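pipeline stage [seq->struct] | target=Auxin efflux carrier family protein | organism=Flemingia macrophylla | residues=421
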Amino acid sequence: MGFLELMEVASMPVIQVLLISALGALMATQYFDNLLSADTRKALNKIVFLVFTPSLVFASFAKSVSLEDMISWWFMPVNVGLTFLIGGILGWILVKLLKPNLKVEGLIIAACSSGNMGNLPIVIIPAICDEKGGPFGARDVCHSNALSYASFSMALGGVFIWTYTFQVIRSRSKKFKALEAAEILKLPNRDLDANEATHLLKDKVSENTVEVPPLTCVGDTENQIVRIVDQDQTIVSNKGTESFWHKMVEVVSQLVAELMSPPVMATFLGFLFGAVRWLRSIIVGDNAPLHVIQDTLQLLGEGTIPCITLLLGGNLSQGLKSSSVNPLTLISIIIARLFVLPVIGFFIVREAAKLGLLPVDPLFQYVLVMQYAMPPAMNISTMAQLFDVGNEECSVILLWTYGAAAIALTSWSTFLLWALS
């Protein structure tokens, strides 16, 4: 295939995402009577999370994944882990170079490290197989494999996002709130004199049996802020081993909760039914006694992609209402996440293929590289809302990175189709 034909094949799925996302953004405005209001998006997101996505994942895995496939896919968890590790390093470098507001630090690292491993791959990758002249073989086989790869990617991405990314945003948010509280010491006295303000602050902190040292002079402000942050850490450290185990239990419980989420459970069950032949024969195939279950799940799963894409547009529309992020920060995140990271990922996957670590299927290699090229995960917005830090900034970052991803994903997809064909 020529370059223009490859570009056409690569661009069609991205254009479809843009068109449906634009419709979702319009549905979230007053021109459509707020059909996708914040409450509606939350309700629809729950339906997608609890019903549509698990149905799609289970139906795909049970039908197309075998035990041999699972063994041959061992490199995908490693690859997803590398995307988070390398992206986190790039984000940390940006934070050191740009020195942004602490409220944005966690968002920068999260945006660079945490890619959209679920929603977009499920939309874009199977759509590649639907285009005529694709390099990945017969349409039906390609589409089935693409759904399986994308579903596995979604399950893996969810585990990493709700462990690594969750901790990044939570730690930065705690530090920001500690510094924000310290800023009270620098505010000019308006309704209260200095002694009264200091007294109130001491009373508030005394609940944790820690005293805030008085602010002696303006030149000592930075040291005072550092001391307050240290005190915030001391409040926790005073609890000793109990606090450590409390953190460990919290992290483990969050990981278990993610492993017990409907999409991940559907992935495990799909693996089980796909790997165990007699279980698979019960629901898969025209002669299966319970094939109506598989047919029903496939029907429900068909609602996943349009709903996900509409929600994507509705959520991104919030970023149009704010301009609270430095343009240099946005440009840096876009370059790191959508261009530098995929270049690194391409060489990693190529070397792994040369060493014989990957299946022969070129579609598998395509999925591995595209995992590096995906824009930031939408769950970052959920975490920002959870900790009430950087909500507007997160919406702006997601809006501009997803806008740039329309070009980046088309470019990378075209290049990979050429390199793998």
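stage status: PASS
auto-comment: Residues 189-229, 231-237 have pLDDT under 50 and may be disordered. DSSP finds 18 helices and no strands in the chain.
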